[in-house]
Specification:
Layout lengths: L1 H28 L2 H12 L13
């Protein structure tokens, strides 16, 4: 009974590892510079000229 539980855990670990590898492969195909530009475009806010932190 204990070996069946270990087998399920091993299988789950192998599947997770394979999924991680697929995600890594996809990420390597993506140009990193473009990812950075997209993130910057969505996360940077213009600086207010009056210096206050209040939204416009």
């Amino acid at each position: 009974m204990g070996t069946e539980k270990n087998s399920q855990q091993d299988r789950a670990g192998v599947e997770e590892s394979q999924q991680d590898q697929r995600q890594d492969d996809v990420a390597k195909q993506r140009p990193g510079q473009q990812d950075e530009q997209i993130r910057d475009a969505h996360s940077k806010k213009p600086v207010r000229k009056d210096g206050s932190g209040e939204p416009a």
